[in-house]
Write a structure and sequence with these properties.
Blueprint (H helix, E strand, L loop, with lengths): L1 E3 L13 H14 L24 H4 L11 H18 L6 H23 L3 E3 L1
């Protein structure tokens, strides 16, 4: 579960199973032009410094632990996620793609909340 660190249970959040979160991140990495399985920490030996993406704090993060992401990191990811959403929003013929688009949209909502309230994004 990813949620704002504002201690309000009514704040927006997003959650996946471990498998679902893995599939979401693999899809985002593919959208960024690389395979997550090639990366250090995900079975490969490619170093994270070799990829240029503002989504690295999300993609190169433990599933449910590790450092929280600060509001500045959340803000930095928003433009790229919005571009991915715009790119795929009109194609709803594939149910898997439709699910990924819904995930990106919901994640954007959570990130915007973190930025607007100046709170961290918590991995829990």
């Amino acid at each position: 579960m990813l949620f704002p660190g504002d201690d309000d249970v009514a704040s927006p959040d997003i959650s996946w199973s471990y498998t679902g979160f893995s599939m979401f991140r693999k899809w985002l990495a593919q959208a960024e032009g690389f395979r997550l399985a090639e990366m250090d920490g995900f079975g490969g030996d490619r170093q994270w410094c070799s990829v240029s993406t503002t989504l690295a704090p999300l993609l190169n993060h433990p599933d449910d632990d590790g450092p929280d992401l600060g509001p500045a990191q959340c803000a930095a990811m928003l433009p790229r996620l919005e571009a991915i959403l715009d790119q795929h929003q009109t194609d709803d013929s594939d149910p898997v793609l439709r699910r990924r688009v819904e995930d990106v949209s919901q994640f954007i909502t959570v990130l915007r909340f973190c930025v607007d309230k100046d709170v961290e994004l918590i991995f829990g």
